[in-house]
Amino acid sequence: MKAWKKTSPEVVAAFDKAVPASPNVTRRPMFGYASAFVNGNMFAGTFQDTIVVRLAETDRAALLKLKGAVPFEPMGHPMKEYIVVPASMTTKPKDLSAWIARGHRYALNLPAKTAKKGIARRTAAAKRASPKPMAARRGR
Description:
Strand order of the largest sheet: 1-2-3-4-6-5
Distance between the termini: 46 Å
């Protein structure tokens, strides 16, 4: 598999400036790339030298009409609801901010993501279990 390249500092800077300054927005890396989340749902991020945004159906259709906008297909398969914004938008802060704001509004209406029950249960069980000495585990 071909290695993904890092996002250029210029694209990261444009992304950082365009993400809404809201207390409900959290930022964390997704696959090593800058991403923005609300209620546990990613609504925008960078990937290599592109910026992607998660949009409602009507907004996706509108963005796809712009030259350079394409469905986000990081591994050859489209990622549902995500569109790559035109590269020219990284030099148009108002336009980029407006599209990322649309993604933010869309994600605010999605069900909040919580920790998966199976993972939470296994983690809690592991914390409760005390480690046994090696000899006890071997039956000695």
